[in-house]
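## retry 2 of 3
previous attempt timed out at serialization; input unchanged, resubmitting
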Amino acid sequence: MEEVVIFRNLDKVRFIIQEATKLDVAYAYEDLVFSEHGLFIIRFNDDDENILYCYFNKDCIADKQMQIQTTLTDVADLNGIKLYYKGKFEMNQKEGEDEFELKLYEI
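## retry succeeded, writing output
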């Protein structure tokens, strides 16, 4: 079987994050883009490159989340992207390892 390589527009997501929040991308892996300080994660949609999903850290203060979410959504919209809030996430380091466990809690 031939493995399919999916190209994602990381530059556009980086621009949206920087323009909306003045933060940078801390890490990108597969279909996930992690913001600096672990405030939120952007997930790509496999079926439509103009749709993104956003998850906020479970410890993010509600008022701050709403402010960031609104700004991200507005900047994404101005760039032809629909960004949808999908829920919360938490990330914990596995004990005694350098690996992390990521849990997404969709609404």
